Amino acid sequence: MNYWQPIRQLLMNRSFLWVLFWVNLLGTIYGYYWYKNQMQDTPPVLLPFVPDSPTSSLFFTVFVLLLLLGRSNPFIEMMALMTSFKYGVWCVVVLTMYGIDDGYIDPANIMLIFSHAGMAAEVLLYNFAYRFGAKHVWLGAAWLLVNDFFDYVFKVHPYLEDDRFLSEVAVFTVSLSIFTILLTFWLRQRSA
């Protein structure tokens, strides 16, 4: 008996997909708004490396739209999985780390923690629907690591509360990229 079948049926239900599409689209728009000041302060050539989370959720939003249209794009699927998982987990860990050290987590950060946890979870739940292969994972791996390079060498990482954990966040970010790459290869192997 396939215990996942009822969950998969819900996840592929058109009404559910439309709700997921609109929630992610609105979250994406809000995410780009959230980054507006940082994007204004960034040289145009570095802009693709700034709004990590909203770009990740944009990939997932497009993936959901493609599901609704009965289509598939392996590149979009891979980017949705890899970037949404990585930046979802990144935000949860980094904001929680600052909150624990501060002894307080701002309500806006609590909202960000929950929404980013949702980003990471939703892309894992749709693993059964992805059709990308190993060559796509290599492209995603390159993107994650190049983005990390620009984030911490050219200082276009998301604004932090302050720099007290900057070196720890940089190490965590690269480690999380490597974990995400390995996880994605493992997920692809399991579903093949």
Automatic annotation (TrEMBL):
Alphabetical keyword list: Membrane, Transmembrane, Transmembrane helix
Isomerase recorded as keyword: no
Membrane listed as a keyword: yes
Source superkingdom: Bacteria
Cross-referenced Pfam families: DUF1405
Membrane-traversing stretches: 16-35, 55-72, 79-98, 110-130, 137-154, 166-187
Full protein name: DUF1405 domain-containing protein
